[in-house]
Design brief:
Blueprint (H helix, E strand, L loop, with lengths): L6 H20 L3 H14 L3 E2 H7 L8 E6 L3 E6 L9 E7 L4 E11 L6 E8 L12 E8 L5 E6 L25 H4 L7 E4 L10 H11 L11 E7 L4 E3 L5 E4 L2 H16 L6 E7 L16 H12 L5 H9 L2 E4 L3 E2 L21 E4 L3 E2 L10 H13 L4 E4 L8 E2 L3 H5 L4 E6 L1 E2 L7 E4 H15 L3
Parallel strand pairs: 1-2, 4-13, 4-14, 14-20, 15-21, 16-18
Antiparallel strand pairs: 2-3, 3-13, 5-6, 5-10, 6-9, 7-8, 7-10, 11-12, 12-22, 16-20, 17-19
Helix pairs in contact: 1-11, 6-11, 7-8
Length: 454
Amino acid sequence: MGKIWNNKNLQTIFEFCDGYKNFISSCKTERECVNKIREVAINNGYKNLNDCIKQGIKLQCGDRVYASNLDKCIFLFKIGTRPISDGMRILGAHIDSPRLDLKPTPLYENSPSNLTLLDTHYYGGIKHYQWTALPLALHGVVCKKDGSKVEINIGDNIQDTVFCITDLLPHLDRDHSKSAESKINGENLNVLVGGLPLEGEKKEPVKNNILKILKQHNIEEDDFVSAEIEVVPAGQARDMGLDRSFVLGYGQDDRICAYTSLMAMLESNSPSFTQACMFVDKEEVGSQGASGMQSLFFEDMIAEIANLLGETSHLAIRRALRSSFMLSSDVTAGYDPNYESAYDKNNDAFLGRGIAFNKYTGGRGKSGANDASPEYIAKLRALLDEKDISYQLTEMGKIDQGGGGTIAYITANYGMNVIDCGCPLLNMHAPWEISSKVDIYEAYRCYKAFLEME
């Protein structure tokens, strides 16, 4: 550990993580991530691929382009000197995180309490009880029938109001036969938003007062059906520990890999192989949908780029995908001494020891896993050792304890070499996750070296 935790590197590591904390504090939804990544990309010379297509602008070595889809995923490309059919160097992170989404008809007033709440549907794998008794924020967009949009961002400014899901006081919670998880099911994750009645209103007076407030922001109750509003923890990412060696923040799965991939992409040297950096949606729920990795959007964008490079044959596109090398940039479980029985000490990732590679993920017999080839792993080992980058070869807990998945198996379907590679976390999928600052910085160094790999 002393190799990477030393006074020479400390200031550089901490300064890099200050940028990371700002990113995850201001980008708590997929749309916010895409907007920020697109803004940063444009400021660094990236052009809109759609504009190049419409104007018939041919691409050449050194060109930088981006392509976004539904404002929920975005890809960056840096054109290399070699034909794209020779393959690419690809980083793939996801920018969705576990959370609560508002239902299409969410607002209701409870009788007889007259408390008004928002009904939610949880997204991704969460422990329900972890989302109670916390300050929460609302982020998202309301799409109106006239085509206009109302942006929602309430709860993260220190002057903002916040929201909360209530919990049962211990004095009335004597049912020891139930686990914490079973006591709070998904239908009970309702967000308290109001208790002040509208003067003179007899029927649902509190709800009507909330609707009056919403109308001041050009939002009608019917507009919820065409809204995308996410309930997320309120507050900023913070340094954690007396030595400030950790980051505590929401959405580190997987925005920790998104940020480090973005920084690596922006700062990598001019490539021989075309570089691609993917920031995708829907990984936490299986990668389906138009903005998920299972859509054909990535493949379509490769075809568009190949066309603008003059490689127009279908075979060139297939060769480009098959010949590529990819890091599926995703987090893994960090060893937690409070729950030793869930881990394999010899094979799991430890915080503060560098970036973690998972040859395979899946669960119970590698079900659903990509399984990286030993030849590819050997190539990466040689690269990382040459660059003096700290890394770990790991699994994800004991074999029969559980398991998890990433986007690696999807891109592996093209025949390319893929391996999972990211930072270990504590509290994964909880409202507040913990990462090591040194792992964040080593992830950035690893991704940059990979993009430049011959």
